[in-house]
Amino acid sequence: MKKIETIIRKSKFDEIKEALHNVEVNFFSYWDVTGVGNEKEGHVYRGISYSTSEIQRRYLSIIVSESFVEKTVNAILKTASTDKVGDGKIFILPVEEAYRIRTGEKGNDSLN
Question: Which of 53, 49, 60 is nearest to 85 (CA)?
């Protein structure tokens, strides 16, 4: 099993959620987060200058079996990209074990 952590633009969340459902990833957790990025210059919108050093993003945590890693990552990459700075990051970590609390199932059986 693997844990896929991704930080994405909030504006792309609904599209990514649908793309994940299309590749049969039907459960994940998410949070609204603020991060500090590489872009140092500010932007002006309607005459008001604002900083882009602190950016609002959405953080997704997805646990999948090994066989779902590639299609999950590809769904995120394809959907999240705007070809602009700040599209986000994907991290993949190993998961030693998982349990479904209700039934006591463990491993990949606990994910379905």
Answer: 53
Q: How many domains does the chain have?
A: 1
Query: For residue range 6-44, what is the model confidence (pLDDT) as tens digits?
Result: 999 999 999 999 999 999 999 999 999 988 766 656 666
Q: What is the pLDDT of residue 43?
A: 65
pTM for the model stands at: 0.84
Domain span at residue 47?
2-111
Phi–psi pair at 86, nearest 5 degrees: 100, 10
29 near 58, Cβ under 8 Å? Answer: no
CATH number at residue 103: 3.30.70.120
Q: Which two tokens stand for residue 73?
A: 């990552």
List b or e across 10-39, with b for residues whose CB sees 16 or more CB atoms inside 10 angstroms: eebbeebbebbeebebeebeeeeeeeeeee
